[in-house]
Write a structure and sequence with these properties.
By secondary structure, the protein is mainly alpha-helical. It contains seven helices and no strands. Helix 1 runs antiparallel to helix 2. The radius of gyration is 27 Å and the shape is elongated. The two termini are 35 Å apart.
Amino acid sequence: LIITLLSYLFIHLLHFMGTNDGEEVHFFIFAATVARGLIAYYEFDRSHKMTANEFLLFISNRWTSKEIINARQILHEIFIDAYRDENGKNKCEYNIALSKVSEKVLKMSRKKGDEGKDFIYLLNLLDYLETLSYFCSHKDLDKHDVENTCGNNIIFFYECFKFYIEQRQSHDKKFFSHFTTLYGELKFLKCKK
């Protein structure tokens, strides 16, 4: 596009140099308009990149919020209880431990008291992940940026919430549908590597 515009300008510049009428004025108006358009495009592109980076920073700050950290600690404890024994040795395979975590989260969703309160923290994390996934599906966030910053976490957390998500989706497929889609896409990208 730029080469075409420059060629056009060069050809017409040579043509206009040989004329003495008002075409030179039109040529310079056109050239100034093109230059302003290119500058505007450059500024818009730079502004868009800055906004995207600010958005990633906001997401990163939310990821480190007290509520999200609390939910991550709860899941970590559940996972460690399922995966490791008192001596730190594996009790079972990794995927089996994730399945046990998912069962526990589903059970917590039906409880009240301390487990019910802990589940609310987990639900806050799940809602955050669905929101993040929504932004990816609407191209407000680049999926590869998310993969590079927290892709493995998203896969891990989806596995932890899998039974709860499936239970909710059995009533309405829209529940956590963006998170389910992002999980599938990130899992696919991970398999390609």
